[in-house]
Amino acid sequence: MRLRLIVMNFLIFAVWGSYLCSLGIYLGRVGMGAKIGSFFAIQGIVSLFMPALMGIVADRWIPAQRLLGICHLLASVFMALAAFMGMKYGDSVTFGQLFPFYALSVAFFMPTIALGNSVSYSALTSAGMDTVKDFPPIRVFGTIGFILSMWIVNFTGFKNTYMQMMVSAVWGLVLFAYSFSLPQCPVAKAQANASIVDAMGLRAFTLFKQKRMCIFFIFSFLLGMCLQVTNGFATPYLDAFGKSADYVDAFAVRNNVFLSSISQVSETLCILLIPFFLRKFGIKKVMIISFIAWFLRFALLGAGSPTGFGLILFILSMIVYGVAFDFFNISGSLFVDQNTDVSIRSSAQGVFMVMTNGLGATLGSYCAGAVVNHFTLGVEDFGQLMAGWSNAWYVFAGFALLVGIVFALVFKYRHNPATTGNQQ
Predict the structure, then answer these.
(1) What is the CATH number of the domain that holds 69?
(2) Which domain holds residue 30?
(3) pTM of this prediction exceeds 0.85
(4) 423 in a domain, yes or no?
């Protein structure tokens, strides 16, 4: 069962890693650099409703593992069509030709992250295993799949072309076929006298009535604003150094996607630390650590450069990303799972996705795009351009630090290290 879940997580994130950190490079090369924010914001827009909707379907009608496969089949078809548009029109491809198919693909992919979590939690719980202890070593293979896809598109040169989207489509088709072998997830049967809320599977949204869960979701939204910033703009930022003769041949510029993959390598190590940190410190301190890591992630990017000491700062930024992402995304998902009833497991994961990859990522992507465009758009002088990039990263760092301080003051939580999940 562990092996089946490992392969599932590997494939889900291999689909995403094929384009998430390199799409900005391709868009810049075909004249859509100013639209990068829109391409990443659509992931947030569809996450406003698709994860929650698919979670409700999985809880009420279609088993989560089967719905996971269906979503990946549709996502693959639309991503392949987006790649076809890139192939057909080459460097002349327009926003209107590429974006609709990409948006539809993302709409069906984004729910699968929460669905994959639900399948994992359901299988582990049915086997009498501890999700906090046993899920992270399984989920780490998702990050390995993400890294492998990044390396494929980097060293094949697909990072510069539409072929990165075709790689994603192929991975998705493999996952669709594989989904038929996944453990069966239960479906809750609607009762004859059930309320409309229960009948429609909307019970998970009542979690907002609980003060602590409401505050947790609000700060998940704010932290979610950081999620797609570096995914959308880190590699275009590194690519921009190639405009200078001093950096054009630097390894970090020529292999910027590979350099970015250090972030995911860090993830693989940090995921394994989650059980210890959650049991030892509890969700509040783990989230505070994540806020600090996001601050360092952005600040180090602003201060770095592709050679010498600046390269060390870049590498440090990639390393702290593992803490920033995992200590929020994975720990938050586990916290939600532990504080919700099994009958709304998929729906609750969908709500968490709505707040983070939906509302948070949407607003974050548009704001990040506006900030980057404000400091860099139309700037021709290389020195001024890179100073503008640095200022943008410092703005993001200040935001993460400010929200982290407010979270530490507002979120009330008393951790019981003896029994994770027994919080007050």
Answers:
(1) 1.20.1250.20
(2) 2-185+197-410
(3) no
(4) no
For residue 98, which phi and psi values (nearest 5 degrees)?
-95, -45
- Residue 26 is assigned to a structural domain of this protein: yes
Number of domain units in the chain: 1
Question: Would you say residue 191 lies in a domain?
Answer: no
- Cα separation, 61 vs 148, in Å, equals 34
pLDDT of the chain along its 424 residues, tens only? 999 999 999 999 999 999 998 999 999 999 998 899 899 889 888 877 887 788 778 777 888 899 999 999 999 999 999 999 999 999 999 999 999 999 999 999 988 988 898 899 889 988 899 887 898 899 889 989 999 999 999 999 999 999 999 999 999 999 999 999 998 887 755 444 445 444 444 566 777 888 888 888 898 888 888 887 888 888 899 999 999 999 999 999 999 999 999 998 998 888 888 888 888 888 889 989 999 999 999 999 999 999 999 999 999 999 999 899 888 888 888 888 877 777 776 677 778 877 887 888 888 888 998 999 999 988 989 999 999 999 999 999 999 999 999 999 998 877 666 555 444 3
